[in-house]
Amino acid sequence: MQVVRFLFITLFSIYSQWAFATLPIQHWQTSSGARVYFVESRDLPMLDISVDFSAGSSADTPEKSGCASLTWHLLSLGAGGLSEDKISKAIADVGAQLGAHFDRDRAGMSLRTLSSKRERNQALDILSKVLQHPEFPENTMKRERARMIARLKEAETKPGYIAKRTLMKMLYGNHPYGLRSSGEVATLNILQRRDLVDFYQSHYVATNAVVSIMGDVNRTEAAAIAEVLSKDLPQGKADNNLPPVVKPVVGIKRITHPATQSHIMLAYPGLQRDDPDYYPLLVGNYILGGGGFASRLMEEIRQKRGLAYSIRSSFFPLKQAGPFQIGLQTKKEQSEEALMITQKVLVDFIAGGPTQKELTAARGNIIGGFPLRIDSNKKIMGYLGVIGFYDLPLTYLDDYVKAVDKVTVEQIKEAFQRRIHPEGMVTVVVGAAEEK
Fold this sequence. Notes:
The protein has 16 helices and eleven strands. By secondary structure, the chain is of the alpha+beta class. The protein folds into two domains: about 200 residues, Cytochrome Bc1 Complex, Chain A, domain 1 (2-Layer Sandwich); about 180 residues, 2-Layer Sandwich (Cytochrome Bc1 Complex, Chain A, domain 1). Helix 2 packs across helix 8 and helix 12 packs across helix 16.
């Protein structure tokens, strides 16, 4: 089995190098200032497009939290003289798929369509209207605002949501990353159509747009598509500056909840997308808690003690320092023990670093699994968007495997000691054990 696995990894590594060599990323700007990232791929008669803006939840203000999310949500619910039903039918008529994505940094729309002329043109016309001529109908806005409030109230009863929300507020305080992506019930209630229009005009500007294109078109066609999708966007310059993240106020919150299990989460400010410690922390985290059954946390918490079915540590890189967090669920009566052991595993890992054996296995697994992360147009599109939005090198996909392969034990140890301080972490336990 080891020989088979080695051959599998080797073949996929060769394939990935071939794929990078034959799928170069082309980059330019449209006449309106939008940045374009393009990969030509003739294997399938398909075209994938996404357009991203710095219009995620961190663009909100505390007074109008939820405006970014509601604005993004309404883009495709009435645009360019078309109702939401007509938009949906026009997309379905040509077998296309209209998608959307939203997080703390980004908000955007995506399209997958056949590359044949009729289908492509109709789908692109819809995407163009949605991006450049949204109407934010009053009645639709009120309906969707009410739905968001109802979902928010329901979510606030769930222990996992409570834990995550409390953790992010403790971690980021008054920083924009501390704002709830969906907004607050109180702020959503006061939002008006004018707020959405103003947010769109100030954040969905052409110079703030990143257009990613991949599929069955040539450079000339891709350039024409990018022009069509950006020429009527609002003009001006969006304020994309975010303040740096400061160290959180250390603390632990234990919140009672009727759930049978405790939800435990720990966090610390982690990575920026262009962080020089990115690869040592990436590989180190795989060993610590990101590698499933191969990780130390899983070994100590689940396999040795049976305290949790699963435990995982993760880095979420953003424009500013995104969270490093650890999460698990366990029986209430075991919550304090599970938390103590989790903290000890983290402290020991930071103090001593990984072993060479752990590093070798982690590098092999990450490198061996990487081709599966770029084995479709849709997956590569995800990387194109990240490369464009965060202004990463065009050679990012080439560099990834090489950089992982060069990471050393000492680099991991130094990076974790420099960047993650267990004594400064914030912790939340929802469904804490009752004191006897």
